[in-house]
Amino acid sequence: MPAPQVYPLPARTPLPCALEGRALLSTPTFNKGSAFSATERATFALEGLLPSTVQTLDQQVQRAHGQYYACGSDIAKNAFLTSMKEQNEVLYYALLARNVKEMLPVVYTPTEGEAIGNYSRMFRRPDGCFLNVLEKEKVESVLAEWGGEGDVDYIVVSDGEEILGIGDQGVGGIGISIAKLVLMTLCGGLHPNRTTPVVLDCGTNNPDLLNDELYLGLRQPRVRGKEYDDFVDTFVQAVRKLFPNATLHFEDFGLGNARRLLEKYRPEMTCLNDDIQGTAVVTMAAITAAAWVIKMQVSDLRVLVYGAGTAGTGIADQFRNAVTESGKPIEEAVSQIWLVDKQGLLLHSHSSTLTPAQKPYARADSDFASVNTKDLLSLVRSIKPHVLIGTSTHPNSFTESIVKEMSKHVPRPIILPLSNPTRLHEARPSDVLTWTDGKALVATGSPFPPVTLGKTGKTYDIAECNNATAFPGIGLGTVLCRADRISDKMLLGAIRCLAEHAPALKDPDAPLLPDVADVRGVSKDVACAVIRCAVEEGLARVAGIPEEEEGEGGLKMWVEMQMWEPEYRPLRKVRPEESSRAARGELGVGRRA
Question: Which residue numbers delimit the Malic enzyme NAD-binding domain (predicted)?
């Protein structure tokens, strides 16, 4: 008889709870509001604290949805959802899960950017871990309040310097850490009580914040150099010591720090930078699907990236890795990539102004002696790219002339205007499709409505290069297999898996990426792909990972059974003196109660 399947992170068992009465109702991890059963009300001293009717979670979601609609603006809806999350965690995620496509732009980009920009003025209740550079000696003790070795699976940290296209937001960066963890739970099924949002307050160079008497962070210019590096290293080493099994996710660090921090710590621990790697994975998945549609090999594509910052160079690196995996030498892979930034096409003569990430892609000046390297149209005419990617935040920079020039050389140009928020997009999908008579393969960085062409009456759904389809699955996979680190092969596995979910594989005019409404199932499959690669490379630290993919006891079921679901679990009463910190509501979001 086969041994029973072991699930290291069970998500279906009853929850031990040492709280009762108002303390229980004030703890979002355990609170069920009007859904507490009569037995639970008696057991946990809730009688008289709730209306008499016992409701279902579905009824609560219906009521909450009506309250959500009553909020006039998106920022008001964002505030309402934040308040709900602080009261009843299961209801919050159940509401989101039933309305993913509608509410994702409210809890994430673009509305979350507005909320972060007004963080100090909208502040009501603290959420997350706040570390500041003037109290480096307290970092470890503060982090220890969030649990012990087996309590934390995933940490998102930001220093708030480059937030969602709106720049330096200082301590408001805690908002992006929280938002990313919401997606980790909503899309990837991580236990919300086993995650920790962190902001590293290093000051701010935003004059509006420095002059705002309500600003809640350090009112001083950003710390740089050795003091900054020592502070970040103190934090990272504390994470490694306290939470050796956790994945560390860097988010929205500045251009001068994002890549070098990732390269410093990536060989040592399980960490990723979503702006570099998550964006690259989802973009490469769109390119891979597009290559299948036009019946070309990814390794034969020419790629022009307009905007060579953190995201642009990350995409270039991931494309290079995909090409070298096909067997081409790295020099040949690099020769298929052109990067354009503030100085125009990156050239050898710019070497003194290029970042380490940009330098490998600089071109010989002599190769472009007769080309205006600061003019995108001239570059497109010279390079004849199959793929044009926008990460520049220069709105409307992909003009009709540029798009039509691409169409002269490529039957179905792949055009990806990715800059966020929507007002900063390099082109509107409706224009690109109109200029190419529907031949362009388009994916964008923000959601856009379907496009109907007047000539044919045909409607095109627009793929969104939303990182939410990538990093939750990658993170889930690393957590479940306790990956020693995140390798290039694991990221390539995620790319292939995500591309295989593209509707365009069944209909060449359909989107290049799966819809965010399907993201939870996609995340499960991406996690499986990541875990398989980790096992093959000897990077998985969990024993007993199933070898088979499908069926009872297979890898997919093993992953699914450990994904947290927004459903009320039975509460099991335990005595406070014999309970864990989790049962006392002292971990994760519950520690605020």
Answer: 276-535
Annotated binding-site residue numbers for (S)-malate: 420, 466
Whether the pTM exceeds 0.70: the reply is: yes
Note whether 282 and 470 are within 8 A (CB).
yes
Which entry of 32, 77, 180, 524 is annotated as an active-site residue?
180
| Residue reference for tokens 């709900």 | 84
Range name among 107-111, 293-297, 361-365 with the lowest pLDDT average: 107-111
69 given a catalytic annotation: no
**Per-residue pLDDT reduced to its tens digit, 369-395:** 999 999 999 999 999 999 999 999 899
Q: Is 455 a catalytic residue?
A: no
Position 10 confidence tier, pLDDT thresholds 50, 70, 90 = low
Give dist(CA 330, CA 324) in Å, integer: 6
Binding residues for a divalent metal cation: 251-252, 275
Task: Report all structural domains of the chain as residue ranges with CATH numbers, in order of start.
Answer: 111-269 (3.40.50.10380), 277-466 (3.40.50.720), 469-560 (no CATH)
Nearest to 348 by CA among 370, 337, 364, 336: 364
- What token pair was written down for 544? 């007993």
pLDDT digit string, tens, across residues 18-52: 999 999 999 999 999 999 999 999 999 999 999 99
- In DSSP notation, 448-483 reads ---EE-TTT--EEPPEE--GGGTHHHHHHHHHHHT-
Q: Does residue 115 contact residue 79 with C-beta atoms inside 8 Å?
A: yes
Q: Report the largest interatomic distance among the alpha carbons of the chain, rounded to a whole angstrom.
A: 83
Rounded alpha-carbon distances, angstroms, from residue 401 to 100, 170, 198, 436: 37, 40, 45, 11
Which of 68, 108, 119, 154 is labelled catalytic?
108
531 near 539, Cβ under 8 Å?
no
CA distance 167 to 205: 10
Q: What is the pLDDT of residues 475-533, one digit of tens each?
A: 999 999 999 999 999 999 999 999 999 999 999 999 999 998 899 999 999 999 999 99
